Amino acid sequence: MNRNQVLPQVELSNDPKVLSRIDFCAPQSYQGAGFLEISVLPRVAEEASSIEPGDGFHWQVKTHFAHSPGSEPQQILELAIKGRIHLVCQSCLADCGLDLAQESRFVLVTTEEEADAFPMEDDQQEPLVASQHFDLLGLIEDEILLSLPLIPKHPAGACQPHASSFGVGADVDDASEKPQNPFNILKNMKKN
Fold first, then answer.
1. What pLDDT does 143 receive?
2. Please, which residues have CB within 8 angstroms of residue 190's CB and are 6 or more apart in sequence?
3. Which of 94, 134, 141, 179 has its CA 20 to 30 A from that of 190?
4. Integer-rounded Cα radius of gyration of the chain
5. Strand partners, 57
6. pTM across the whole model
7. Are 9 and 26 in contact (CB under 8 A)?
8. How many other CB atoms are there within 10 angstroms of residue 139's CB atom?
């Protein structure tokens, strides 16, 4: 590729069918943005405790070629995701709406061998094998799943105690009763 060559820029559609077949092997750059409802992301939908109106993810993708001395320019893919999902709070077991944001940067490589040889200490960008039918929708879904918290919780102090929690949910009548002394049974046995 000539360093002075201007590449065509392709605008990506928000259609999930189009996003699952992008030709990243073509000599062009891409950009696009849109909103994906949780219903078009089946693996994310499995994680959701409920789906409320407005739940989903805004995505933004941009690719460009970065010149590196002594080698071919590398295609860089930048992906930003921001959205809302409802999960089960692990403190109170109630529905919990979480706002997520994730930004990722990838280097597109041509083979699995190049991806395996990519330096692991580079935590700023990860390798992705480019193809003529690249599943960008799958990548967006993967990044959403990776951004989910391991233990979803409400913000501190926002949880309502669950009825099955220890010491919570006991009836007022039970609290007024005096607990029975377990040694009373032995005392009565001794008398007999």
1. 95
2. none
3. 179
4. 27
5. 36, 83
6. 0.76
7. no
8. 20
